[in-house]
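Human: I would love a firmer grasp of how sequence relates to backbone shape in proteins. Could you go through the record with me and say what the backbone is doing? Here is the record:
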Amino acid sequence: EPAVTIVSGLKDTVVSEGDDVTFRVQVSHEGARDVEWRLQDVTLQNNEMNEISVEKGRVHTLTLRKVTEQDIGTVTFRVGPHTSRA
């Protein structure tokens, strides 16, 4: 089974306080395991404030709901040894 790589990485985004923001990463293969989203070195879980999903099998998305000033920082997506940051 070939290793999963990042085809299209994260893009820097500016958003207003109180808005939602979505980050997308496209990977090379469907069914990628060992995937992690982080904000400021904190691993994110799927919950009411962070929506983590996979679209069409290869596009991984993270939506941060109603962002605040405390959400400013680096978002990181990791799959295996590959990372993308914004």
Summary: The chain has a mean pLDDT of 95. The two ends are 29 Å apart (CA to CA). The chain has one domain: 6-85.
